[in-house]
Amino acid sequence: MPGWRVIQADGLTAIPGLVDVHVHFREPGFSYKETIATGTAAAAAGGFTTVCPMPNLNPAPDSEENLEKQLDIIRRDAVVETIPYATITRSRLGKEPVDYKSLSPFVAGFSDDGSGVQDEDAMRRCMEGIAQTTSILAAHCEVNSLLRGGYIHDGEYARNNGHRGICSESEWREIERDIRLSEETGCRLHICHISTAESVELIRSAKERGVKVTCETGPHYLAFCDEDMQEDGRFKMNPPLRSRRDMEALRAGVADGTIDLIATDHAPHSAEEKAKGLEKSAMGVVGLETSLAAIYTYMVKTGRISFDRMIEIMALSPRRIFGFGGGMRQGNRADIALVDFKKEWAVNPEEFLSKGKSTPFADEILTGKVMITIAGGKIVYDGNEKR
After folding, report:
1. Which of 6, 211, 235, 377 could be a cystine partner for 334, CB 3.0 to 4.6 Å?
2. Active site (annotated) includes residue 265
3. Cα gap 347→298, rounded to integer Å
4. The sheet that has 261-262: what strands, in order across it?
5. What residues contact residue 264 under an 8 Å CB cut-off, 6+ apart?
6. Does the CA dihedral 270-239-80-291 come out positive or negative?
7. Percentage of the chain exceeding pLDDT 90
8. Radius of gyration of the chain (CA)
9. pLDDT at 1
10. Stretch 261-286: mean pLDDT
11. What is residue 8's predicted lDDT score, i.e. its pLDDT?
12. Would you list the DSSP string of 201-232?
């Protein structure tokens, strides 16, 4: 028919558009690292049709006025659905709750990602407030007093190479607290980027008790451990790559359903900020353009999870937990990715659409390449087009 485009999809697999509930697009405030335009372009290239930017911005989206500044940019520049978080506390300082009822209709949830709410009484008040809405609290769980100046995992690599380590307890101790507070308040709790075996077990036990808790982990924690570290900023993120034991526990948690979804924690920085080695480079790596291929390569091809489980944790589960629309079911907005799951490709960060180029997957050979992404019935990425 006139105006229609026929897509030649021989050899491609149609899957629901992917959802990433944990990305950093840096705008407003830090657009030299990433923008809504470049971040959503990278998302489209990775097969994502819905993404949720975290609120460590300037100004922080802790009021309707500040949130509107971000929403204006999203409406103007985003090529895929972009639903931001508001902060849990004013200015992400971990003290004063924001107005959850006024903000909740416009956001994916509430998070102070980048820092944990340290004071227990403050976190209890925040959970009580969010529990009065239908929204969700996405917690960055980290006990600051246990960090002790660390910047990679407190394991053999750190000890053998003279680095200061971050202990696993700094993560799981706050997860333990927040699960308890969630039980007390009835607040829906989503735990960000878990990285330790103890975290998996705490969440597994909480789910068995019926606590309203979900969680995510990132592709890099399933593909690498601290044995794979190199003296390079592309191996530095927060939380850090943990031990082989932790990696295997995370893989098991994805397989048995304890871990609900995959989120990249896509965290771009400038080349200069990531070129200072493990000690001095900024925390964070990019992941939107490698996520699907990494999970397919390291989890599906190896037989650790099924293809259907991959679709569940990358497309279906995040929609269900956060209440998002889109997908491939009849009546849904058409959010679809067409993927060549036979195609092997070498990761070349210089080809990324993201401004960020720092990734532990650089030069890895991955299987599975997104060829076309359709968001809201519109083609937003075509891998056959010259860049």
Report:
1. 377
2. yes
3. 14
4. 137-139, 189-191, 213-217, 261-262
5. 20, 22, 23, 218, 219, 286, 287, 288, 291
6. positive
7. 94
8. 20
9. 55
10. 98
11. 82
12. HHHHHHHHTT--EEEEE-HHHHH--GGG--SS
- Separation of alpha carbons 372 and 102, rounded Å: 37
Q: Which of 154, 265, 335, 340 does the annotation list as catalytic?
A: 265
pLDDT of residue 328: 86
Q: Indicate the residue type of 173.
A: R
Supply the pLDDT for residue 2.
60
Per residue in 168-195, pLDDT tens? 999 999 999 999 999 999 999 999 999 9
| Contact (Cβ atoms closer than 8 angstroms) between residue 96 and residue 65 | no
Give the integer Cα–Cα distance in Å for 336 and 325: 12
Nearest Cα to 144, choosing from 187, 199, 88, 94? 94
Largest CA distance in the chain: 66
Residue 137: DSSP 8-state: E
Measured in whole angstroms, the distance separating CA 362 from the mean position of its chain's CA atoms is 19
Task: Give, rounded to a whole angstrom, the gap between the first and last alpha carbons of the chain.
Answer: 28
- Token output for 13: 């697999």
Continuous H helices in the chain:
36-45, 64-77, 100-103, 120-130, 156-161, 169-185, 197-208, 219-223, 244-256, 277-280, 291-295, 307-311, 317-322
Phi and psi for 93 in degrees, rounded to 5? Answer: -95, -5
Count of C-beta atoms within a 10 Å radius of residue 189: 27
Which tens digits make up the pLDDT trace of 96-131?
999 999 999 999 999 999 999 999 999 999 999 999
How many other CB atoms are found less than 10 A from the CB of residue 271?
Answer: 12
What integer pLDDT is reported at residue 386 of this predicted model? 56
- Is pLDDT at 3 greater than 80 in this prediction? no
Q: What is the rounded distance in angstroms from the CA atom of residue 76 to the CA atom of residue 144? A: 37
